[in-house]
Design a protein that fits this description.
This protein is α+β, with helices and mostly antiparallel strands. It has one domain. The protein contains four helices and 14 strands. It is elongated and about 90 Å long. The chain starts with a helix and ends with a strand. About 35% of the residues are buried.
Length: about 325
């Protein structure tokens, strides 16, 4: 056999080995997938929604912040939010801090500080269309006592009041709905007190209220040129690039809890994975779509992923 023929044959064998090895690696990755990257996206979204809801609730309690002129005795004295105290030392500048002391509320322990600044205050109040809140997280950590898992935020995000109006208008003036948009760049999100990811966010929340129940429809508004429904992107806790899309609007209500959406879908892509992770939010314990009903809340969410002709499914609880 000539040297050239030998080299060609060797090259073919090596190519076959590489293809075979890559295929085996992908099959193993498919079989061993733990869905952690999608679970992280879901957990960070839920806890971020809770934090933003606290801010909206606190402003609803404070007439001069949300836009009304009257105040009452003891106006700055505190808040009804569970586990939080109010630092109002800079309230005249439109700045306040929510300080969480580790009190357990709804099976979650919260610690750290959320600092909120109303930009251009007092010329702008939160009820004004186009008003912007700057939110800073200082080791704001939430621990789920059922699972033992935790999520911590450090960094800054902003909320813009697209429609005008506040939760006060929903509750007391029966405004049909308000729309807020949320943006974040390079937000550090730590999981279980260790590994952390870097999250960018682009979301739109439409709030309404029925009696005392707050309802929310959440959509992704980021774009990569091909998709315009991206809600977060950045680096996973393993330092790998990801994108998370809201392929069906996420719906939650305060009746069941912000952590427990009754509907919605996420699609998470992680660089290097030969498959996408698809989550259907709002299912029963068997992964079936939530049927609803008075006093009933969904159990969790179902994740599907497929490689070649095979597919796998897992169901995860919210709590």
């Amino acid at each position: 056999m000539s040297r050239n023929k030998y080299l060609i044959g060797l090259s073919i064998i090596l190519s076959f080995i590489l293809v075979w090895s890559s295929s085996c690696k992908k099959k193993k990755e498919f079989k061993d997938e733990d869905c952690q990257d999608l679970v992280d996206c879901q957990a960070s979204r839920a806890e971020n929604d809770v934090a933003i809801s606290d801010v909206n609730y606190l402003i609803m309690e404070r007439p001069l912040l949300h836009g009304r002129n009257e105040a009452t005795d003891g106006y700055w004295s505190g808040t009804k939010l569970c586990g939080a105290s109010l630092d109002s030392s800079q309230i005249s500048e439109g700045i306040f801090r929510l300080v969480y002391d580790g009190t357990v509320c709804n099976n979650r322990k919260r610690e750290g500080i959320i600092m909120v600044s109303i930009l251009a205050y007092p010329l702008k109040k939160w009820k004004n269309q186009g008003c912007v809140l700057n939110i800073q997280y200082f080791a704001y950590k939430v621990t789920n006592l059922n699972s033992g898992r935790s999520v911590q935020f450090d960094g800054t995000q902003s909320i813009t009041n697209e429609s005008g109006g506040t939760w006060y208008d929903l509750k007391y003036l029966h405004k049909p709905g308000i729309v807020h948009s949320t943006r974040a760049s390079d937000l550090k999100v730590s999981f279980n007190g260790g590994d952390y990811g870097i999250y960018n966010m682009s979301r739109r929340a439409t709030y309404s209220m029925t009696d005392t129940v707050v309802n929310c429809k959440l959509e992704g508004t980021g774009s990569d040129g091909n998709n315009s429904d991206i809600e977060s992107w950045g680096l996973t806790r393993n330092g790998i690039a990801f994108t998370s899309r809201v392929t069906s609007s996420i719906l939650w209500s305060s009746a069941c809890g912000i952590h427990s959406p009754t509907n919605g879908a996420l699609l998470v892509k992680v660089d290097g994975k030969p498959f996408d992770l698809n989550a259907s939010l709002g299912t029963d314990s068997n992964g079936n779509s939530f049927s609803g009903g008075a006093g009933n809340c969904s159990y969790g969410f179902r994740v599907n992923w497929a490689y070649k002709r095979k597919s796998l499914t897992r169901v995860f609880p919210y709590n």
